[in-house]
């Protein structure tokens, strides 16, 4: 199976950025262990982070008929981007939305997501573990739906 992990703006600053909220691990560290976890499940994992909405959208379009499942942390675009939502709908690839922090415990503007109602599932507040739970769940779902 081919799984794409997408991370939105400012997540390249993980480790340095508000460590009390987002933890001390860097994105590179998290993605390296996630890639290892994927290998053990025979999943080919690709990771892409961008601070630009258009680049994330392009990456989603390129995934059409190539990627079986997406794990996405849209970061601040969660709360703003109809365009990113439409991109995911346009390729109809199932996805899990992940947030490191518990967005519902934070500012009111973080309570709404443009993704949750069309997501396969949503994980938030569990830190970097959320990506691993998402991978586990994606794998289960892919095995279930495989011919
Ligand atoms: C985030 C939560 C968002 O509200 C925020 O804009 C982020 C990160 C998280 O992983 O907790 O950049 O998606």
Description:
By secondary structure, this protein is of the alpha/beta class. Helix content is 37%, strand content 18%. The protein contains five helices and five strands; from the N terminus they run E-H-H-E-H-E-H-E-E-H. Helix 3 runs parallel beside helix 4. The radius of gyration is 14 Å and the shape is globular. The model has no long low-confidence stretch (mean pLDDT 97). Residues 10, 73, 75-76, 78, 99-101, 103, 110 line the site of 1,3,4-trihydroxy-5-OXO-cyclohexanecarboxylic acid. The site of 1,3,4-trihydroxy-5-OXO-cyclohexanecarboxylic acid has 10 residues, from loops.
CATH homology group: Dehydroquinase, class II
Which runs of at least 5 residues are low in confidence (pLDDT < 50)? none
Range of strand content: 15-25%
Q: Major sheet: order of its strands? A: 2-1-3-4-5
Radius of gyration over all CA atoms, rounded: 14 Å
Class derived from helix and strand content: alpha/beta
Continuous helix count: 5
In helices, the fraction of residues equals 25-40%
Describe the largest sheet: 5 strands, parallel
CATH architecture: 3-Layer(aba) Sandwich
Question: According to CATH, what is the topology?
Answer: Rossmann fold
